[in-house]
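Hi, here's the filled form for the chain we discussed.

Project: internal
Contact: R.S.
Residues: 398
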Amino acid sequence: MSRFRMYPAPAQRAALLEQCRHARYVWNLAVEQWSMWTRDQGPTPGYAKQCRQLTEARAAFSWLRAGVQIIQQQALRDFDQAVKNFYRGTHQRPTWRRAEIHEGFRIVGPEASKVVKLNRKWAAVNIPKIGWVRFRLSRAVPEAKSYRIKRDRSGRWHLVLAAIPEPIPAPGTGTVVGVDRGVTVSAALSTGELLKCPVPPAGEQARLKHLQRRLARSRPGSKRRQLVKAAIAKLCARAGDRRGDWTEKTSTDLARRFDVIRVEDLRIAQLTRRPRPKPNLEQPGTYLPNRRRAKAGLNRGILANGWGMLVRRLEQKAPGRVEKVNPAYTSQTCAVCGHCAPGNRESQAVFRCVACGHQANADVNAAVNIAAGRAVSARRETPVRVSLKREPQPATPA
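And the returned structure, exactly as it came back:
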């Protein structure tokens, strides 16, 4: 996907929001019809039948007829594909789209090729019933059969062209690198490099905390609350841009330098899950401490370092060259002698083997184990799990 920043005029912004509302309304109608359909009514309506229903609705309601028909039909086509992906088991169940969160629509067909270059820095795209909208030429415009217009929560408009870039060729040197992802160090390489994802400066963090407190004191539905939410969204969007830029540059650099890239096989969705409440059996209706605040801070650290985004972009830029390794005991195993023990990890940053005395950065040592592509069991050393249960003693004769 190729994303470009759009700069529509005020009248164009209002027209784009109107088209987003139409597309979201049609999508939500399709979700409601699909979720309320029963078996006695036969098979659920497909894309063709829903298009006929859309034509009848456009004839009955003038406000819906004022929108672009191909945008509304494309929303139905996207929903039909989403349902097929859900039944195929590759995607989640299609859900409702909300205002201020899901603002966008897609255009497919000859309209997608109407892009004109204005000068060295600017170009324009022709959107039906809206006209030519300018966007910034941050890179070469690829040929695409469809494009999507999106608006993020901070109010920025983007043009996303559905064009899959060519994968980055391997250098052909046979080099292998291991990548260990962490919170303090975003990515530690087996070569000894420590890469850190940029974090918001102290001023932005203080302003974000101040705005969050103002948001908690503001009245729901008030104008002040909308302004505070917009200011928070701008700060979050700025942090997301820094994280995305670092991810793109890091993944491109790794794909160009190494033939094989090995990472830990982590389930980030489960790692960032909230801890379950612990009921207090002695006092029904109350709960025991479950360290949820500490877990929330760890979850923010994991998501702020872009663990999943880095691996996803590596798989897209270097297809077939990214291998996932079992992360079991990679941080407790010595990369020199293979001895595995919890005492090897002195602290979060220092690794000192209790068997051979090897000392190194803990993240780099784990990255070397990941680059080897073997868990501790593959080194013919299985960690011994000592049971605390006592063996039953034979009864002594009286």
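Let me know if anything looks off before we file it.
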